[in-house]
Amino acid sequence: MELQKEFLDEGIHRLRTLKMQDIADIVKVHVSTVSRAIAHKYIQTPQGIFEIKFFFTGGFQNVDGSMESWEAIRQKLAEIVAKENKANPLSDEEVAEKLHTSGIAIARRTVTKYRRIMKIPSSRQRKEY
User: Fold this and answer.
1) Do the beta carbons of residue 126 and residue 118 sit within 8 Å?
2) How far apart are CA 38 and CA 8, in angstroms?
3) N or C: more exposed end of the chain, with fewer CB within 10 A?
């Protein structure tokens, strides 16, 4: 939890990328030992109850060189869609551009993939008349 302190204090947008190997190196055990130790275990945090595996998330490097978790990117995508003009919703390309201006270089097709995973309708389906 020391490695995810910012998440605990500020929320999902501060979730760090973390690999089980990182923890295995810290506690000097094999990565499979870490995997077995966290299997089917949950933790209660100020942000809610999470399966411990949730904290071992992949990610990618931002434009500024910092790492961003996939969950944090999905959260930002959801925020952009929630704030859009419903009469003229943003296309996946426009969402990707907004993410890029905030330092997250992400492809349009990745935005589409995440939007579908999150069950967010397409811009055409989100339009309100």
Assistant:
1) no
2) 18
3) C
